[in-house]
Write a structure and sequence with these properties.
Layout (H helix, E strand, L loop, with lengths): L3 H12 E8 L5 H11 L8 H10 L4 H11 L4 E6 L2 E6 L9 H7 L4 E7 L6 H13 L3 E6 L8 H12 L2 E4 L1 E4 L7 E4 L4 E5 L7 E5 L6 H25 L5 H5 L3 E6 L8 H11 L6 E3 L2 E3 L7 E12 L4 E10 L2 E2 L3 E4 L4 E4 L4 E3 L4 E3 L2 E2 L4 E6 L8 E3 L16 E7 L5 H14 L3 E5 L6 E5 L2 H15 L3 E6 L3 E6 L12 E5 L5 E5 L2 H10 L4 E3 L4
Parallel strand pairs: 1-3, 1-4, 4-5, 5-11, 6-11
Antiparallel strand pairs: 2-3, 7-8, 8-9, 9-10, 12-13, 14-15, 14-23, 15-22, 16-21, 17-18, 17-23, 19-20, 24-26, 24-27, 25-26, 25-29, 28-30, 28-31, 29-30
The protein binds guanosine-5',3'-tetraphosphate.
Main location: cytoplasm
Organism: Paenibacillus psychroresistens
GO molecular function: GTP binding; GTPase activity; translation release factor activity, codon nonspecific; translation release factor activity, codon specific
Length: 528
C-alpha cells in the first residue's frame, strides 16, 4: 500500500544522485568539483575548494593534518541542488590523505565519475579506485579533462580504458580539435555543439545542429577539423559500441565526456547527461534481504569515522549513508550491534563550506553523527527490526610496519588501542604465526600510520616505534588445507583479526611464484 510517507520518499529518492569522483592526483578533481558546485549555486566564489586544498597540501605533519580535520570534514560530502535534483558528491581523498577510508567511501556511492587527464591517461590511483568500483558493479562515467592541452588522441584514450581497465566505452561527446586548436565538443546525445570561446570570460555557446555534417559545424570548425570530426564520428557510428543503458548500469560500459574543467567547458553537458543516466539510490543487501530505498522504515550504515575533529573533546563524527526511509532530527533508531535505541539528536549535513544541522534527509544522503565512541565502521542503524547491512570489504594493504612498544608495561593499553583502532578501520593488524607473536600493521596510505602512532600516544598513552617492513602485497589465502610451510618460501604467512590466513609478499615475482606453485589456493585482494 502506498502511504503519503512512501510517496514522499519515492519523490525524494528519484531526485537524488550520490556519486564519488575517482582520479589520480592532479587530474583536476578539485577543479571539476568546484565547477559542479558552482552550477548548483552551492558556492559563490570560485577558488573556495581550491583554497581548502592548498591548505591540505601545506604539510604532512600530523598535528597540521589534525588541525585541518575541521576543514576537510566539510568536504567529505558535498551536497547541492541542480535542476530539481539533489546531488551528493562524496570526496575520495588522494595525495597523502589516501587511505582505506577512500575505498570504503566508494561503498556509499551509487555511481562514480572517473576523471582522467587527457595527456596522462589512466594512472595508478585511478586504476585502484576503478577496481573497487568495478567489483561493486556500479555505473562509471568518465570525464576526460584538460582537452585544452596537447594530449593523447581521443581514440588512444578510449583504447587505454579498454586495455588497462577492461571497460568498453561510449563517447557521449567528441572533441573538435585539441590543445590550442580545441574549439568545442559535439554532443552526440543532444545533437548540439558546445563551443569553447576561450578568452577571459570563457563563454560557452550551445547551438542545436541537424547532425555533425551540419554546415554550422563546418563554419565553426574549419575545413580540416570538420573533416576529422566527420571521419571520427562515422567510425564511431559504425564500429563503436552502442549506448546500451543496461551495460552502463552494470558498469560494463562507461559513457565518456571530453572537456576542460578549468575552463568550465563540457562540464554542463556532462552534468546534464550524468543526471539523466546515473542511478538514483540503489537497494542494498542486508541480513534480512534486499532493502529497498523506498521502504518506510529508516535504515543506514556507518562507512567512515572521522576522529579527533577536536582534540580537546575527542569528538568523532560517524558518517552514515541512509539506505531507506526518512530521517528526522531527534528520531530514535536501533543501534543494531549493541542492541540499544539511540537518539539522533544533532545530525549534520555538509554543504560546500558549512556544516549544517539537518532536520530531514532521505536515502542517498549522508549525515554526520556525533560519536561518543559508540560507532564502528559498518554499524547499521535501523528503525524497527534488526537490519544488518553487508559487511564493508577489507582491502589489501600495500604498506607494512612492525611495531615495538617503548614501555613494556604499557602492553595492555597497547592491546586495547590496537583493538579499538582496528575496529574503527584506522589500520589492519596481522599476527605472525611462526615462533613468537609479532604484530604487523598494514595500510593502503602512509597517513594511516601517522594517525595510528599519534592516537596511540594521545588516546592510550602508549609510545610506539614503527619499523617499515618490506612487504608490498597481501593476499588472503583460501585453501582447503593450508600448509604453512609451503607459504614460507616466498612469503610470510600471518593471520588477520578474524584468524584468516594472509600471505605477505615482498614483490610481484614472489606473489606470482606462490600463485603458480599453489594451484588449488585462491589469493584474494579483498578479505573473504
Ligand atoms: P586534483 O584535485 O585532481 O589534484 O587536481 P586540481 O583540480 O588541483 O588540478 C590540478 C592542476 O590541473 C591545477 O593546476 C589545475 O589548474 C589544472 N587543471 C584542472 N583542469 C584543467 C583543464 O581543464 N585544463 C588545464 N590546462 N589545466 C587544468 P596547478 O598548476 O597545479 O594549480 P593552479 O596553479 O592552476 O591552481
Amino acid at each position: 500500500m502506498t502511504t503519503p510517507l512512501i510517496e514522499e520518499i519515492q519523490t525524494e529518492v528519484h531526485k537524488r544522485r550520490t556519486f564519488a569522483i575517482i582520479s589520480h592526483p592532479d587530474a583536476g578533481k578539485t577543479t571539476l568539483t568546484e565547477k559542479l558546485l558552482l552550477f548548483g549555486g552551492a558556492i559563490r566564489l570560485a577558488g573556495t575548494v581550491k583554497a581548502r586544498k592548498s591548505n591540505k597540501h601545506a604539510t604532512s605533519d600530523w598535528m597540521e593534518i589534525e588541525k585541518q580535520r575541521g576543514i576537510s570534514v566539510t568536504s567529505s560530502v558535498m551536497q547541492f541542488d541542480y535542476e530539481g535534483n539533489r546531488v551528493n558528491i562524496l570526496d575520495t581523498p588522494g595525495h597523502q590523505d589516501f587511505s582505506e577510508d577512500t575505498f570504503r567511501t566508494l561503498t556509499a556511492a551509487d555511481s562514480a565519475v572517473m576523471l582522467i587527464d587527457s595527456a596522462k591517461g589512466v594512472e595508478t590511483q585511478t586504476k585502484k579506485l576503478f577496481q573497487v568500483c568495478s567489483k561493486r558493479g556500479i555505473p562509471i562515467f568518465t570525464f576526460i579533462n584538460k582537452m585544452d592541452r596537447e594530449g593523447q588522441s581521443p581514440f588512444e584514450l578510449l583504447e587505454e580504458l579498454e586495455q588497462v581497465l577492461g571497460i568498453r566505452s561510449y563517447p557521449m561527446n567528441w572533441p573538435i580539435g585539441s590543445g590550442k586548436q580545441f574549439c568545442g565538443v559535439y554532443d552526440r546525445q543532444h545533437v548540439q555543439l558546445e563551443l569553447f570561446q576561450g578568452g577571459e570570460h570563457r563563454e560557452i555557446q550551445v547551438s542545436k545542429v541537424s547532425g555533425y555534417r551540419d554546415p554550422l559545424v563546418k563554419e565553426i570548425a574549419g575545413e580540416f577539423l570538420f573533416k576529422q570530426l566527420c571521419d571520427d564520428l562515422e567510425l564511431l557510428d559504425v564500429a563503436g559500441d552502442p549506448l546500451d543503458l543496461e551495460k552502463v548500469r552494470r558498469g560494463e560500459l562507461t559513457p565518456v565526456f571530453f572537456g576542460s574543467a578549468i575552463n568550465n567547458f563540457g562540464v554542463q553537458t556532462f552534468l546534464d547527461n550524468f543526471l539523466e543516466l546515473a542511478p538514483y539510490p540503489e537497494p542494498r543487501n542486508s541480513s534480512v534481504g534486499v532493502i529497498s530505498p523506498f521502504g518506510e522504515k529508516f535504515t543506514g550504515y556507518v562507512f567512515k569515522i572521522q576522529a579527533n575533529m577536536n582534540p580537546a573533546h575527542r569528538d568523532r563524527i560517524a558518517f552514515l549513508r541512509i539506505c531507506s526511509g526518512k530521517f528526522e532530527r531527534g528520531m530514535s533508531v536501533k543501534h543494531v550491534r549493541i542492541g540499544k535505541d539511540i537518539k539522533l539528536a544533532q545530525p549534520q549535513q555538509f554543504l560546500a563550506q558549512d556544516r549544517d544541522i539537518v532536520d530531514t534527509a532521505y536515502p542517498g544522503d549522508i549525515i554526520g553523527l556525533f560519536d561518543p565512541g559508540i560507532f564502528r565502521i559498518g554499524d547499521s542503524l535501523s528503525q524497527g527490526g534488526d537490519v544488518v547491512f553487508d559487511e564493508l570489504p577489507t582491502f589489501s594493504p600495500e604498506l607494512f610496519c612492525k611495531v615495538t612498544v617503548k614501555n613494556a608495561l604499557k602492553q595492555k593499553q597497547y592491546q586495547k588501542g590496537v583493538d579499538q583502532l582496528t575496529e574503527e578501520g584506522t589500520i589492519q593488524v596481522f599476527r605472525t604465526i611462526s615462533g613468537f607473536d609479532e604484530t604487523i600493521l598494514g595500510v593502503v596510505g602512509q597517513l594511516q600510520f601517522e594517525v595510528f602512532e599519534h592516537r596511540m600516544k594521545s588516546e592510550y598513552g602508549v609510545e610506539i616505534q614503527l619499523h617499515r617492513a618490506n612487504y608490498a602485497f597481501a593476499r588472503w589465502l583460501v585453501d582447503d588445507k593450508i600448509d604453512p610451510s609451503k607459504f614460507r618460501i616466498n612469503s610470510t604467512l600471518v593471520k588477520d583479526k578474524k584468524d584468516n590466513y594472509v600471505a605477505l609478499f615482498e614483490n610481484e615475482y614472489a606473489l606470482r611464484t606462490a600463485v603458480e606453485k599453489n594451484p588449488t589456493a585462491k589469493f584474494l585482494e579483498i578479505a573473504p
